[in-house]
Amino acid sequence: MRYLALTDNDRKEMLKTIGVSNVDDLYDAVDKEFLLKKPIENLPLHQGEIEVEKTISALAKKNRAASTGPFFLGAGCYKHHIPAAVDHIIQRSEYLTSYTPYQPEISQGTLATIFQFQSIISLLTQAEVANASMYDGATSLSEACLMSLRIKAGKKNIAIFNNLHPDYIEVCKTSLELNEAKFVERNNIDENCAAVIVQYPDFYGNIINLDEAREAANKAQAMLIVVVNEILSLGLIEAPKQADIVVGEASSLGVGLNFGGPLLGFFACKKEFVRQMPGRICGMTTDLDGKTGYVLTLNAREQHIRREKATSNICSNQGLCATAFTIHASLLGEIGFKKLALINHKKATELADLLGNIKNLKILNQNFFNEFTIEFKKEAKEVNKKLLEKNIIGGFADSNKMIVAVSELTSENDMKEFANALEEILKN
Amino acid sequence: MTYIPKQTGLALETDLLIKQSREGACGVDLPEVSDFKLRTGQNKRENIGLAQVNEPQVIRHFVRLSNQNYSIDSGFYPLGSCTMKHNPRLNEKMARLSGFADIHPLQDESTTQGALELMYNLQNWLATLTGLGGASLAPAAGAQGEFAGMLVIRKALIAKGEKRNIVLIPDSAHGTNPATAAMCGFNIKVIPSDKDGLVDIEAFRSLVKEHNKDVAAIMITNPNTCGKFEKNIVEIAKLIHDAGGYFYCDGANYNAIVGKVRPADIGVDVMHFNLHKTFSTPHGGGGPGSGPIAVAKELVEFLPTPHIIKVGEKFELKKHKNSVGKVKGFNGQFGMHVRALTYMLSHGADGLQKVAEDAVISANYILAKLKDFYHVPFEGNCMHECLLTDKNQKAKGITTLDIAKALVEYGIHPMTVFFPLVVQGAMLIEPTETENKDTIDKFIETMIYISKEVDSNNGEKFHQYPLSTPRKRLDDVKAAKTPILTWVQAQQANML
Q: What is the ipTM of this complex?
């Protein structure tokens, strides 16, 4: 077995040193009737690479990859081009196979990368501090809600100001319920509100002026949480500096679709709240020689120290995904990030122009970044079925609305095919 | 000032990219964008503040940084409870197939049947290995698996109309256990450990008797965090079941018993797995992990969403009516599911059994060789990890921390230190089954050397170790006192 390191001779020798004759003697604490002798049934036996690759590849072939045809699906998970360099670097052993940097002297690679991740997120969001990443946008919003409930102790409502991603709502509801808190609508913002949540751009692609939400939060003495699930948008639209907490999804850079996981949540906030932040945090310090270095810090918030009093039960972050993001963002840099955002938006305006000419189709958005919503008289699900027959993957179906996303990868041809197909489908 | 080059041999140092920034540099080539009317409803964002560097600069920077990192590929990583086993590269190749990497979670299910089938198969492997009724791959990591598992228990009790809010947790448990129970609204009662490093069965009996109808569950790690298999586990399971509670098993240490013991046989109702431990998915410097859960048949209806089901020949993403709902967005850490299933197919049921056996042999071998040099708190053999303490060395002023830093200096990543919290100066050593005997012997010899140096009053030097690493000991206190978390804050504090 290629991944087992001991030979039969090794095992014999080692068992002799231990002082037993059989490995099962080491399982003496297990009731005899429960110690399995033979391999568990109904599962295949070991296989070489050739066989395993055949089996797994066959499963991959049954899926329709996004890049094999026109693709307009977003809704919180966006397809972008990842520069070749990113995957090469994250496949380096030292990034791929290293552990959490608990021994900082031999983990400066990971730590310096996390520090730059936190820095980039902070700059994009204009929030003063950021953590080392969260599982995804939905859970980071959930944590932001819990943090608000802690800070505004006694208040039990969280207001949703505009259109929030349904998965995010569902994930948050679970945590809120456990804390006897609940979501309320925008017209119910009062002094019982611990936080006001704004998605920016929202689930339908709309971009609102955050001043309005900030005022509403101020009136209610609530925290303002801004959710950004297309991080690239912050290269073109203004940073949400009105926010107390900014959370969301950064997987547009570096990570890829991966059928929705792993993703890359981020969490940023005003520095006055730093000790209330969940998750791992990396900080700068110096070593015995006075050299600048990095360590995981503010551990007193976390589960391994505070246990049931921790700010969250969270243990890991999305290390390798944060690394991929940092590399991708570094390649883009100041010039590339803004330009890429601009290209995305331009593509969206081009698509909007094309679709705007179609009979029986209405574009609902006043403004948008790279995603907007169209409406027709048919069920969007049915429209998508017909689009699929032409190998086009349409946008997110929401009754008779469709949320359509583009990126720098969307070609003129893709858009024309999509528009033509829609025109035909919506003819009657 | 004449520049004097540093004698470093290979150059590992590299400034943060913001310090290497050169106006006009860019690491990507994007087409020029002719002017057009913006429809964002805002003025263009003017300034972000990112560095400006080109591709060669970026690659050199991250390569140099990587050279400052220890990794399982480069050396022994005996971290107890972390299961730092080899990360097979076939897993990486499979995860990158475009049919897996390039599919969107919200695509019509007819276009992702292969992905759904993979998840279904993985669910099946986990259920079959454990003997439990069904599994969900939704949770993002171990802690989230615990959360999902406890939510299932909570909902099952509510469905039965029972109001139970006590969870019993051993004092040796990983911090995520009580943190998770607290998040689910439970009150925690701690079960003390006995002199053998096991759950104190008398104390446990009393707790169950005292709280009886209030006991929702026990959260127990087996083998436990002291590296021992709970020999009274069957009785523990019976007691909790008789009281009407559920048995939650933290599966972090599953590597010791995979294929050797079926958790359902010993009474487990709910269990989480760490795919990044037992099932070889890479740790990536801190994630992504994956924490699926398996549950008894009667609890399948509460599984988190999505649960993959097979209807005829088709695979579907299902939200059960009584599901505890979504614990994270979309479908779970699918990229890790691909890696884990590839690993399971590679080992097969027979290979996995050998994995557990070899892990247990290696840990006991280390225990046998080091017990004459280091204090062993609990008698008897161990499972896949062995627990030592610094008691012998402390007498000479050398602690677990110093021993760990000495190992760092000698090129070996330390074992888990100061965990479990119930044992003073704990050193938890888990070699895993992917280390060959030479490596293990080298580790043993190094540990013996350290012990002998301490004995002959040469241990003082360890207080300063490590000396040869890219950084020496770092100032944790300063980092926490004045948090500097971004390069902007560093610039403001004149540290950049």
A: 0.97
